Amino acid sequence: MAGAGTQRPDPARVTLLWDGTNPAAATAAGELRRQVPFVAADEATVAVVLGGDGFMLRTMHRLLDAGSTIALYGLNLGTVGFLLNGYRASGLQERLASAQPAVLHPLRVDAVGPDGSVLRALAINEMSLLRASAQSAHVRLRIDDGAVEVDELQGDGVLVATAAGSTAYNRSAGGPIVPLSAELVALTPIAGFRPRHWRGALLDAATRIAIEAVDPGKRPVQAAADHHELGRVVSVTVQRAVDRQLTLLFDPQHTLERRILQEQFR
């Protein structure tokens, strides 16, 4: 989930991170180093990230795992660049000084494997639960430890998406795009065919969502948190991680809130 930030990080202490597998990012890093006095990562309050959305997402996960509070200002040297700003070599310090923050809270994913082991991960975009065989997935949905809301969802699976991730896999599965300030998550079936008319739900970001495999022996399912595969599971709980957050910085004329809004008209 996400929200608007109120305080900009100090742009005077800036470090540089780039995708070493991306030649354009390496070239851009050289260009920027000749213009900006970057500092070491452990001294910085802002990191300029060069690469595409995949590299940005991996960087975000690495910082979450490390408990870092450094803010990220991405410059797109990939394909889509939804989480990044447009690249240009000049004016970086001025752009950082005027950048608008967006604070993102990931989803905390707790899964139980077939052997009873507990698997944990954080999801910035979405948690997806998918069938792991030719058999369709049959799962049961509970909300906030209460009564069963969907006794047996049948299909390819189900996903829970944050607002920041609602324009990605969630949208391709037919789920709604969620405004960044809405404080909601999307619960979306993946190729669901029973119940025939259920198309998902929008839930308060604080909601605890429990998903149970109805017959994991016959109909195994597997879970993933963004690009992190958790393997086969028998149940998953998903809830906003209020104690973990990331700050992304965007040019004021093209904020993340604005990008998500525009996706609803494309």
Automatic annotation (TrEMBL):
Record bears the keyword Acetylation: no
GO terms under cellular component: cytoplasm
Listed cofactors: a divalent metal cation
Localization per Swiss-Prot or TrEMBL: Cytoplasm
Chain sites annotated for binding NAD(+): D53, G54, R58, N125, E126, D156, A164, T167, A168, Y169, N170, R171, S172, A191
A single GO molecular function term of this UniProt record: ATP binding
Protein keywords: ATP-binding, Cytoplasm, Kinase, NAD, NADP, Nucleotide-binding, Transferase
GO BP: any one term: NAD+ metabolic process
Record's keyword annotation contains Ubl conjugation: no
EC number per UniProt: 2.7.1.23
Catalytic residues of the enzyme: D53 (proton acceptor)
Catalytic activity entry: NAD(+) + ATP = ADP + NADP(+) + H(+)
Function description: Involved in the regulation of the intracellular balance of NAD and NADP, and is a key enzyme in the biosynthesis of NADP. Catalyzes specifically the phosphorylation on 2'-hydroxyl of the adenosine moiety of NAD to yield NADP.
Protein family: Belongs to the NAD kinase family.
UniProt xrefs under HAMAP family: NAD_kinase
The protein's name: NAD kinase
